Amino acid sequence: IMYGQCDHPPDSSSSCNQCPIKHCFLFIFADLLPAKNGEEPTMQFLLEFVEILTNYIRKTFDRSTKVLDFHHPHQLLEGMEGFNLELSDQPESLEQILVDCRDTLKYGVRTGHPRFFNQLSTGLDIVGLAGEWLTSTANTNMFTYEIAPVFVLMEQLTLKKMREIIGWPVGEGDGIFSPGGAISNMYSVMIARYKFFPEVKTKGMAAAPRLVLFTSEHSHYSIKKTSAALGFGTENLILLNTDERGRVIPADLEAKVIEAKQKGYVPMFVNATAGTTVYGAFDPINEIADICEKYNMWLHVDGAWGGGLLMSRKHRHKLNGVERANSVTWNPHKMMGVPLQCSAILVRERGLLQGCNSMCAGYLFQPDKQYDVTYDTGDKAIQCGRHVDIFKFWLMWKAKGTVGFEQHIDKCLDLSAYLYNKIKNREGFEMVFNGEPQHTNVCFWYIPLSLRGLSDGEERRERLHKVAPKIKAMMMESGTTMVGYQPQGDKVNFFRMVISNPAATRSDIDFLVEEIERLGHDL
Amino acid sequence: IMYGQCDHPPDSSSSCNQCPIKHCFLFIFADLLPAKNGEEPTMQFLLEFVEILTNYIRKTFDRSTKVLDFHHPHQLLEGMEGFNLELSDQPESLEQILVDCRDTLKYGVRTGHPRFFNQLSTGLDIVGLAGEWLTSTANTNMFTYEIAPVFVLMEQLTLKKMREIIGWPVGEGDGIFSPGGAISNMYSVMIARYKFFPEVKTKGMAAAPRLVLFTSEHSHYSIKKTSAALGFGTENLILLNTDERGRVIPADLEAKVIEAKQKGYVPMFVNATAGTTVYGAFDPINEIADICEKYNMWLHVDGAWGGGLLMSRKHRHKLNGVERANSVTWNPHKMMGVPLQCSAILVRERGLLQGCNSMCAGYLFQPDKQYDVTYDTGDKAIQCGRHVDIFKFWLMWKAKGTVGFEQHIDKCLDLSAYLYNKIKNREGFEMVFNGEPQHTNVCFWYIPLSLRGLSDGEERRERLHKVAPKIKAMMMESGTTMVGYQPQGDKVNFFRMVISNPAATRSDIDFLVEEIERLGHDL
């Protein structure tokens, strides 16, 4: 039944009682709040709207629905069954707005579906979702206590808790939630530079010697983006060699530090990754910390992906030494299942964030306010307005407790071990590296029948490189599941399975494996 | 009535029918999705939760409710009537989660209240709110078409529309939504540097001569933050003098450009503000553009606050010349009433954003995907994951049409003219600058009776400086309304009234004026 197809005159009820159409939207003739008498139409609109959302949520968790209904850009741009993306001068009716909303969801991707494994951020936590709905209803801004008293305090308490979990004494230090891991990593480099060369803030990079940064060749590309953006230059970001599991080789770091010093450059910053994007590798933090201390360099731990493992007594040893870091990136929106966006940058030394970023704008941060203005956070940030990312996380923590996050993480890692054990000796599957994964990343090739007899060589490599993209394309066309692939170094395209979705079970892992076999067998 | 106070055994209904307590939460004994049989409790939880939100929305627009219920940080931290902000190891019940949500709203600030004037972002647009609820339900990420097909296309079409409105030929150019105006302004400086000195990306600032940037002394502090962050140094950001209305004096820009060149520095970037934060001033873009062209400098227009006026045929002349800018910041979350966060950086020359920021991460942006990967936006951004900020804006545009935004903007500017005319000759009020405001900013002092006889001098200045903070403190304690204050240059604390709230009417303006008089009369 289409909405609003009856044209009987409006009456006081929200359903038409003159014709058989359910939910006939008579209220479309009225205006929403703040219009006069807008309260009733507003409540009706929101309730109808929530019905669309709850239907979507119900289907998201239903394995008989597709993960996505794929269309090419030109198809969506041409307008699918009346779904017109173009904006116009004149308003649309509220009934059409509701149709637009349903279409938007229809042609999107169900990232909470139990078989969506495409990204580090997956899943749909109901309490987190409720938290985000409340956040947008409160529609405020984190820069001052004045307009976000509760959220500012929640942020402060949650950051302290995270620092305690990292292991800094009595949770001391500082931190802030930022719009994502890339910006959090950017903060770490900015603060490190401010710590060693504070005059760069006023005089620019000309006031510092040639500074070099170090990070793994497997690390996230945001470190490279940051070295370009902040004026270091990507050539001054030195990539470190890794072992076969994608972990930094500490000796390589020390050799490259010495080499840089011999050239007269100043080694300033080392990024150790806790959970690399593709392999899920954890760099050996303690050994790296030893070198950082020896050569007086800032140690940042990018735990955007792996930070969540700190919540698990079973797995947190993989981040041993994290308490020696000067700063840590940790994205609850990845492994902890918090809705997007939720990323924290945590700093061991108090005052640096403020010192680095404060510009003391008098119109925003008045020292003569009636409350303790040390609670205002705006002058620590590179942003001015800052979205409230804390509430959904705080609410999930309340609802799950620390133990709930631990259970979630242990379960995801169990599932990835299950997948690893299932395919490591299975015909047609080949692991990209040996041994049980450190994180939930399981990296593998699927070898179609036609390639199984081929000996290793250029031809096999070329043909294998095309397999994952082909299977992925078919997967998306059929809409049954989604998993990522990519090349890495000299390794041709392989699948990278990641599990952060709380809805996933062993049966979904089984499904994925069988689906890859079904689609790829005869390639 | 408190939730969950009855302990009758659960049955299939959501309300207890054994005791007089309404909404007895029997479903708290079950688990939410993705738990087995979680569907019914999930739907019940969300419906109860939405009731909390709709009650809040209803009250937000009700003038008989307070704007806020102020408490000091220590009071909230100690726990108000059982509202405990601390996180714990064990989970809370869902009934307690709902109580926490109501408390969070209770002790917050109603930024959509018709008498909330404290920030550039005010108001609560119902369709925009619905858009944000849908966004968080879809919970996806803007970096690839693959996982955000509809949102990526909406962003593309909306940015094109915005460029057309700016006046770039056939809407050509580029752009991206960023987490806020400060980050958008940061993009503009990065892109300008890449345009003139692309080698900085790889070699760092050492590869460029000493570069200088120019902006008004009244401009937003994010320009200063950016000059520190990107490695220019705040000393290389040269502040321009303004006239008494806060507008840049073009001759001062030219003089300072010449002076910088004489010192051997390279003038690279000029920021013209369209709508300054405090005075709401519009810098004369055409005259500044002439100078930028003459000296080959990048012209950025920071229209974070004033960009919305481009939607109004009556007021867009204030941005005359904006089509000559190389880049424009425009925040729909300010003057256009879109929920936070929604900020765009628009760039006239195509390819620069990509050239400046691309790092070609193979694991994210695979050229061998089955769709046209030019739609992937991630490599243009300094972020990796990027929140979907477009949908709520797109949906509001659909619901209002271009004409709806125009009406909103014209109405807000009419209201500010009403306020200006009401107080310009009113006893006890003194304007900070003469003449009708260019934007909705109305800046004024309130002079208590005890100061009215005093002649201008140090004593009067000192005492007047304390008036606005005192009135503001009383305002917040009584919770009746909120408006900002600040000093500016040599001017002591004054009120800055801004109107972007669609719910505000003349009666609310009257109320504010009378409230200031009531609270401040006897100071």
TrEMBL record, chains A, B:
Q: What class of enzyme is it?
A: lyase
Instruction: Tell me the subunit arrangement.
Output: Homodimer.
Keywords, A to Z, come to: Decarboxylase, Lyase, Neurotransmitter biosynthesis, Phosphoprotein, Pyridoxal phosphate
Q: Which family does it belong to?
A: Belongs to the group II decarboxylase family.
Q: Which GO terms describe its biological process?
A: gamma-aminobutyric acid biosynthetic process
EC code(s) of this entry: 4.1.1.15
Protein name as annotated: Glutamate decarboxylase 1
Q: Which Pfam families match?
A: Pyridoxal_deC
List residues modified as N6-(pyridoxal phosphate)lysine. Answer: 334
What role does it play?
A: Catalyzes the synthesis of the inhibitory neurotransmitter gamma-aminobutyric acid (GABA) with pyridoxal 5'-phosphate as cofactor.
Record bears the keyword Chaperone: no
